[in-house]
């Protein structure tokens, strides 16, 4: 392909103002709230439960529009999961919503036994994930939630990159029969996609293309933005890469993972999560079995993060675009 100033994949109809200083920003939790209302309008069997966090998890819009289908269970996350599983047995599609440290964190065993083991039609929405939760500190920064959900049989795991994709992922979850984990963040992040960008839960999409790429960056959630910034910066230095959006952690798109790893021979994973057991772990497991490849992991390195501004935390824990650039430079000289 011919070199261009920006190598965003034009076929995906991405946000052309992505790299502008005034790029539009919204929280992924906003997309979740928008989708719940739309689902509620289309399907009378949609019910929503929350654990005393309706405004923070953006379930308040559904609550106002469909109060008879909204259940406030209070600070009782295990009860919330069990009630949702019971509602699912009556034909309802239940969404449960809380901070990810509490659900699926605190109520993991109840989710495992009452929802996942029974293949109940319940969608677990985990909010305030990652060190992006910032000032609330380690107790509220869910950085293990991908690991503890993807390990469960029969569950699907979605991590949208922006508010628009969050809405699409939520709508997709509403159509999916069986348990789903949806991961959202608190603060506003840049809009990467558009309404016209296709969403296919079964496919990893390549957002950044380049000629003769030296490495493939797999990114999930809002970290995709930092991976794209890194790719743009690296291009200016004569280092071409591929950037892929991993919006679905489970089921994994093994074919695309192997294809992109084979194309470059070097892989970097980027996520706001512990590097153990997260998206990077998923990719490493697949490649170790089917196409051994050199990998660098960008994420939280087996530690808790402190309290602070989330952008400062990304820099401190080496998870920002500079850290991704450095990971690319390290791996391209490895043999």
Describe the structure.
The chain has 335 residues and is α/β, with parallel strands linked by helices. The protein has two domains: 150 residues, Rossmann fold, CATH 3.40.50.920; 166 residues, Thiamin diphosphate (ThDP)-binding fold, Pyr/PP domains (Rossmann fold, 3-Layer(aba) Sandwich). Helices cover 37% and strands 19% of the residues. The chain has twelve helices and 14 strands. The strands form three sheets. The protein has a seven-stranded mixed sheet with strand order 3-2-4-5-7-6-12, with helices on both faces. A five-stranded mixed sheet has the order 9-11-10-13-14, sandwiched between helices. α1 packs parallel to α7. The protein is globular, with a radius of gyration of 19 Å.
Question: In short, what is this structure?
Answer:
The protein is an alpha/beta fold and 335 residues long. The protein has helices at residues 28-42, 60-65, 77-89, 101-106, 108-116, 145-150, 163-175, 223-236, 254-264, 279-290, 310-316, 321-332, and strands spanning 25-26, 46-50, 70-72, 93-99, 122-127, 156-158, 180-183, 189-190, 205-208, 215-219, 241-245, 248-250, 266-274, 294-300. α9 (254-264) packs across α10 (279-290).
How do the helices and strands line up, and which of them pair or pack?
Blueprint: E1 25-26, H1 28-42, E2 46-50, H2 60-65, E3 70-72, H3 77-89, E4 93-99, H4 101-106, H5 108-116, E5 122-127, H6 145-150, E6 156-158, H7 163-175, E7 180-183, E8 189-190, E9 205-208, E10 215-219, H8 223-236, E11 241-245, E12 248-250, H9 254-264, E13 266-274, H10 279-290, E14 294-300, H11 310-316, H12 321-332
Parallel strand pairs: 2-3, 2-4, 4-5, 5-7, 6-7, 10-11, 10-13, 13-14
Antiparallel strand pairs: 1-8, 6-12, 9-11
């Amino acid at each position: 392909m011919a070199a261009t100033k920006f190598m965003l994949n034009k076929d995906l109809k991405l946000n052309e103002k992505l790299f502008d200083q005034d790029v539009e920003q919204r929280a992924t939790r906003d997309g979740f709230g928008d989708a719940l209302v739309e689902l509620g309008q289309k399907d009378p069997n949609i019910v929503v439960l929350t654990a005393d966090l309706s405004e923070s998890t953006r379930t308040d819009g559904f609550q106002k529009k469909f109060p008879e289908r909204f259940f406030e269970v209070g600070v009782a996350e295990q009860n919330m999961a069990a009630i949702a599983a019971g509602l699912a047995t009556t034909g309802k599609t239940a969404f449960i919503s809380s901070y990810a440290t509490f659900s699926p964190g605190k109520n993991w065993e109840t989710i495992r036994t009452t929802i996942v083991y029974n293949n109940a039609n319940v969608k677990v929405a985990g909010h305030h994930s990652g060190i992006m939760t910032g000032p609330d500190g380690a107790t509220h920064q869910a950085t293990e939630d991908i690991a503890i959900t993807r390990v469960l049989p029969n569950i699907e795991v979605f991590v949208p990159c922006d508010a628009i994709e969050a809405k699409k992922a939520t709508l997709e979850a509403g159509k999916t029969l069986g348990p789903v984990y949806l991961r959202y963040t608190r603060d506003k992040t840049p809009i990467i996609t558009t309404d016209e960008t296709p969403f296919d839960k079964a496919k990893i999409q390549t957002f950044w293309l380049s000629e003769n790429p030296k490495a493939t960056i797999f990114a999930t959630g809002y970290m995709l933005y930092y991976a794209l910034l890194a790719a743009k910066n690296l291009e200016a230095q004569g280092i071409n890469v591929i950037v892929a959006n991993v919006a679905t952690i489970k089921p994994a798109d093994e074919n695309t993972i192997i294809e992109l790893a084979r194309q470059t021979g070097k892989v970097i994973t980027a996520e706001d999560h512990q590097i153990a057991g997260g998206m990077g772990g998923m990719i490493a497991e697949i490649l170790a079995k089917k196409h051994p490849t050199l990998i660098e992991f960008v994420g939280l390195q087996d530690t808790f993060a402190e309290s602070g501004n989330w952008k400062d935390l990304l820099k401190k824990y080496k998870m920002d675009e500079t850290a991704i650039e450095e990971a690319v430079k390290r791996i391209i000289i490895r043999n």
